[in-house]
C-alpha cells in the first residue's frame, strides 16, 4: 500500500511546520500475527449465528476496514470491557457459499489469527485489531472474534469484493438518535462493498460511553461491510489539544498515511486506499487541527493525488475521489467557503490533479453540485456530494441555491454509488420531515425513496494528461500555512455555533 519512507529534509520540514502550528497558539473547541490454531464453533458460547455475545469480556462494536489489498485481506476491530481481558483472536473460514443457520452452527472455523490490544481512549476497555491475510478473493468470509475465556461475538459474513461492477455508500453526521437508527436500517437494505462515513460519527462530544452505544447500534452494518471513515468537527471534542480526536484514533483502523512522521498510525485521520479502479483519499480537512497534523496532511494530499493522477494516465484507475467532513462549497449561511485560505489550497490541489468526486457531510442536508471549480460550473471540475443527512438532525437551507448547485434535499438519507468500467452512477435515497420547523422538522416517518440520480464519466485522455503533474515542494505548497491555521481555527469554532 502506502510508502512510509520520507526524506530527512521533508521530515525536518514537517516537524518544523508542526512546531510553527504550536507557536501560532491553541484555541480549541473543546494487525496481529497469523497461524493461530483454529477453534471449532461447537466449543464456543452461543453456537448459532444469531446468539448474542456472552462472557465476562465479550466482544462488542465489531467493525471491518482495509489497510491492505481489499480482495485478499480484511482488518477487524472490536472492543472488550476491562483492562485485563484475555488475549483475543479472530477465527474464520471461507465456504464456497453462505451457510444456513443449522450448517453454520455445526461447522468449525478452520483458521485463526491473534489480535493486538491497546487501551480504548476514555473508557475502561481495550481495542483489538487483527488483519486477515491470504483470503480467497472469490469466496465469502465467515468469522467471529473473541476468546474461549472472555466470550465470542456472533458470527458475521463478508462477501467477496467484485472487480468490475461494485457499489459503495456514503453519508455523514450520524449519531445515536431514532433518526440515525432509521438511516442505519435503510443502509442495511442497500448492500454495498464499501461504506464511507464522512465524519461526525457518534456525536459523543467528549462523553466516551456514547461511542460504545454508537458502535453497538451500527455493528450489524459495520461488521458486514468494509467501512472507512473521516473525522469531523465533533470528533475534535474527544480529547483536547494534541490529544484532539483520540476516540476516533483509538477505535478505528485505517492505513498509514503515504508520508508519515510518526509511523504505525493505525487510527489515522488522513490516508488513502485503492478499491478496484477508484483511488480514494480521506482527509480531515483541518477538523483536528489542534493535533498539529495539518501540515503533514496537506503534503500527503499533494503527493498522493499527484501519484493517483499519474496512475490514471497510465490506465491503472478510472477515478479519483476525496472524502472529508467539511464541504468546500455550500448553501448554508456563513459556510461557503467558511475558511477561504484552506479551501483555496484544497481546491487548487483537487483541480490540479483532476479529482472527480468530493464526498462530504457537515451540513445536515443533501446537496449535489454540477462539475465545478472555484464556485462556478466547469467541465473539468469535480462533483461535490454533500450527504450530512445521517440522522443527527434535520436542517433547512439558509440561502438560495448558488449556480453550481444541481440538486438539494431536506431530510434524512444516504447516497449509493454503482461503479462500472468508466462510469460512477450515484443515487440519493431520502425521506422528508413532517414539516419545516420545530419538532415537525425533526420528525421523519415517511419511507425512503430515490430523490436524485447522477453519473460521472471517466475523463478523456487529454484531460488526464493535463492533470498528471509532479507534486510541488512543501515550502511552495504551504507558504501561507500560518494564515491557514488561523482561519481553520476560526472556522472550527464557528462550526459549533451552527450545530443542531
Short description:
The protein has helices at residues 8-23, 101-106, 178-188, 209-222, 246-251, 294-313, 340-352, 438-441, 461-467, 474-477, 481-497; strands at 34-36, 60-65, 74-81, 89-93, 111-114, 116-119, 125-132, 141-147, 151-152, 156-158, 166-171, 194-198, 227-230, 271-275, 278-282, 319-323, 357-360, 366-369, 372-373, 376-377, 383-387, 405-409, 412-420, 423-431, 449-457. With 500 residues, it is an alpha+beta fold. It folds into 2 domains: 8-27 and 161-497, Metallo-dependent phosphatases (Purple Acid Phosphatase, chain A, domain 2, 4-Layer Sandwich); 34-158, Immunoglobulin-like (Sandwich), CATH 2.60.40.
Q: What's the CATH class of the largest domain, please?
A: Alpha Beta
Widest β-sheet, arrangement of strands: 14-15-16-17-21-18-22
Give the fraction of residues assigned to helices: 10-25%
Second-tier CATH architecture of the largest domain: 4-Layer Sandwich
The computed structural class is alpha+beta
Number of helices in the DSSP assignment = 11
Rounded to an integer in angstroms, the radius of gyration calculated over CA atoms is 22 Å
Described by the principal axes of the CA atoms, the overall outline is: globular
- What's the CATH topology name of the largest domain? Purple Acid Phosphatase, chain A, domain 2
Number of strands: 25
Describe the structure.
- The structure is a single chain.
- By secondary structure, the protein is of the alpha+beta class.
- It has 2 domains: 8-27 and 161-497, Purple Acid Phosphatase, chain A, domain 2, CATH 3.60.21.10; 34-158, Purple acid phosphatase-like, N-terminal (Immunoglobulin-like).
- 24% of the residues lie in helices and 26% in strands.
- The chain has helices spanning 8-23, 101-106, 178-188, 209-222, 246-251, 294-313, 340-352, 438-441, 461-467, 474-477, 481-497; strands at residues 34-36, 60-65, 74-81, 89-93, 111-114, 116-119, 125-132, 141-147, 151-152, 156-158, 166-171, 194-198, 227-230, 271-275, 278-282, 319-323, 357-360, 366-369, 372-373, 376-377, 383-387, 405-409, 412-420, 423-431, 449-457.
- A 7-stranded mixed β-sheet has the order 14-15-16-17-21-18-22, with helices on one face. Strands 1, 4, 5, 8, 9 and 10 form a 6-stranded antiparallel β-sheet that branches.
- β8 and β9 form a beta hairpin.
- The protein is globular.
- The model is unreliable at 1-48 (pLDDT under 50).
